[in-house]
Amino acid sequence: SQGGGGKGIRKVENEYEIKKAYEQVQNELPNSPIFLMKVCNNVRHIEIQVVGDMYGNVCSLSGRDCTTQRRFQKIFEEGPPSVVPYPIFREMEKSSIRLTKMIKYRGAGTIEYLYDQINKKYFFLELNPRL
């Protein structure tokens, strides 16, 4: 949905809840696209901050762990993220730089990922045009 700060996010566990949540989100955010995603349990919310310029240069400013949230709002952001092994964190930074170069991004931005500590894999969530 087009909401920020957790607007439009609902966790559902059965068909009845899907219907109810869909109607709630539709009323909360009229004319916003609505989509479904699988819930990922026991993951960390990791963000990488980047800056891109008009010449195609992009650099990473580091990252942070934003897992601690209340009602989908971040309570605090800890950086650098100590829960991600350094080689994987570097890979996340490189992926973030590759993405921002590919779309010719200019300015400061944050690329968000879910990091699965058990399988040591990360999954792209979104790019926000702000730090």
Protein model, in words:
The protein has helices at residues 15-28, 86-102, and strands at residues 43-52, 58-65, 69-70, 73-74, 107-116, 121-128. The protein has 2 domains: 1-39, no CATH class; 43-128, D-amino Acid Aminotransferase, Chain A, domain 1 (2-Layer Sandwich), CATH 3.30.470.20. The chain is built from 2 helices and 6 strands. The two termini are 21 Å apart. Helices cover 24% and strands 31% of the residues. It is globular and about 45 Å long. It has 131 residues and is of the alpha+beta class. The longest helix is centred in the last third of the chain and has 17 residues, at 86-102. The protein has a 4-stranded antiparallel sheet, covered by helices on one side. It has a two-stranded antiparallel ribbon with strand order 3-4. Keywords: ATP-binding, Biotin, Ligase, Nucleotide-binding. Residues 124-131 form the Carbamoyl phosphate synthase ATP-binding domain. It comes from Plasmodium falciparum (malaria parasite P. falciparum). This is Acetyl-CoA carboxylase 1. Its cofactor is biotin.
Keyphrases for this structure?
131 residues, alpha+beta, D-amino Acid Aminotransferase, Chain A, domain 1, 2 domains, four-stranded antiparallel beta sheet, two-stranded antiparallel ribbon, 2 helices, globular, ACCA, nucleotide-binding, biotin
